[in-house]
Amino acid sequence: MAVTETRCDLTYCKMRGIVSVLTAFIKERKMGLNDFIQKLVSNPHICQHSQVDHFLKIDENQNEETGRDGGIHSPEVCLTSPRSSLCEDIQIKPCDFDYLKIIGKGSFGKVLLAKHKETEQYYAVKVLQKKIILKKKEQKHIMAERSVLLKNIKHPFLVGLHYSFQTTDKLYFVLDYVNGGELFYHLQRERIFLEPRARFYAAEIASALGYLHSLHVVYRDLKPENILLDSQGHIVLTDFGLCKEGLEANGTTTTFCGTPEYLAPEVLQKQAYDRTVDWWCLGCVLYEMLYGLPPFYSRNTAEMYNNILHKSLVLKPNVSNAGRELLEGLLQKDRTKRLGVKDDFLELKKHSFFSPINWDDLMARKITPPFIPSV
């Protein structure tokens, strides 16, 4: 049956076609607005502009409702990553989850163990307070973390982001629930690892770092606290808040950031540094796994910094020649001579210390981990 009007003859098929075109147009405009907002909030200089600040300001007088998790919520914005198990058209909200317990706390919020009510899947939900982020001017780091999480859609040793959404006062990152504990915990409990176990972990960490570098991302904060074990005993790298994006193979940056025990000499000296800063950090973590403490550790921070800059590396003989050679290459104080400066991850893959590793099997998670955590 045709819908007829003066000077107009719209059939049902034509109407469907118009609606389809308009729907696609609106969807594209929404996506464009989201991309525009992400660019705004990831640029600290633009964010400081008065009009932009007003546009992004949290409006405490908006209509709010109390959510099931005890927070204050406004209409939610959901962004679903390719890892999602749910249809991408579904709007995910805080009330879609049962929040079971707190599994971590940080400067900007907390991490909750949560179960999705419909799928009954368990997730780690990172809940960040916007006011604290804005007060500490950490928008750039938070958006960098989300951006890096969204880029990771396939690597087996990087934590995956399933959903991200926000309310009036909170940001939510719904992540893989990794329940095998921090590498830091296991290292503190056992003091040192035998070389085969340390090699396995170092190989999986190096693989994750190499993947980030291929995306022009430098991690910058590798330490045992940011390395988790999953239930099967594989490494999962987490916490991307200090990542530097957009750093090409020969690119450098100068931001002073990281954790004192693992800072590279060039970072301490406030010199330009590149992606080899991650290989220095890997050397520190591998050294700690094999010897029990970071290589230049001191309880006195000033003394530790002096050690990093000037003290020679001490390598005891309980580690193989190949292991000591790898540590010397990774912990080279001159970054232009450091292992990985030329071909990045490929240089590590070819090193004799990793000769027992089949890298294809490693990426496919076919290598049996040397330790299975109790979960």
From TrEMBL:
Recite the UniProt keywords alphabetically. Answer: ATP-binding, Kinase, Nucleotide-binding, Phosphoprotein, Serine/threonine-protein kinase, Transferase
Q: What positions does the domain Protein kinase occupy? A: 97-354
Q: Describe the location of the AGC-kinase C-terminal domain by residue ranges.
A: 355-375
Q: Where does ATP bind?
A: 135
User: InterPro entries from the xrefs?
Assistant: AGC-kinase_C (IPR000961), Kinase-like_dom_sf (IPR011009), Prot_kinase_dom (IPR000719), Protein_kinase_ATP_BS (IPR017441), PX_dom (IPR001683), PX_dom_sf (IPR036871), Ser/Thr_kinase_AS (IPR008271)
Catalytic activity annotated for this protein? Answer: L-seryl-[protein] + ATP = O-phospho-L-seryl-[protein] + ADP + H(+); L-threonyl-[protein] + ATP = O-phospho-L-threonyl-[protein] + ADP + H(+)
Gene Ontology MF term list:
ATP binding; phosphatidylinositol binding; protein serine/threonine kinase activity
Q: Write down the EC number.
A: 2.7.11.1
- Top EC class, one word: transferase
Job of this protein: Protein kinase that may play an important role in cellular stress response. May be involved in the regulation of processes such as cell survival, neuronal excitability and renal sodium excretion.
Name the protein family.
Answer: Belongs to the protein kinase superfamily. AGC Ser/Thr protein kinase family.
Under PANTHER family, the record lists: RIBOSOMAL PROTEIN S6 KINASE
What is the protein named? Serine/threonine-protein kinase Sgk1
Organism, scientific name: Clarias magur
Q: What is the lineage of its organism?
A: Eukaryota, Metazoa, Chordata, Craniata, Vertebrata
